[in-house]
Amino acid sequence: xxxxxxxxxxxxxxxxxxVKxxVKxxDLDIQPIHTKVExxxxxxxxxxxxxxxxxxxxxxxxxxxxxxNGKIIWKAExxxxxxxxxxxxxxxxxxxxxxxxxLGGHACELELGTGRILSQTSIQ
Length: 124
What we know:
Blueprint: E1 3-5, H1 12-24, E2 37-43, E3 47-51, E4 63-66, E5 72-75, E6 85-90, E7 97-102, E8 106-111, E9 117-122
């Protein structure tokens, strides 16, 4: 599966500015569900979106995948019902998984096609 990351991890402010610019692009009409888009990664499956955890309802997942027409394909499974995701990264060695981190101190590997947790560990 071919996956193309659309943001870089160098310089948080620069990344956020680039994400904001990309989100405003006419071709990429990403409408956040509750807060604002922190990061997104375009994949062959769809656009994986990470929304800001600040102000996002804890009972929902702030990490999800959108189809080309903006419909939600999946919402990421959470390791704890009341935690939210804070970071995500496409695994370069295995383009079918995402590495993620949560406010609750979890590091998870998610299946890119479904958003299901493949493995998790506590990093607290």
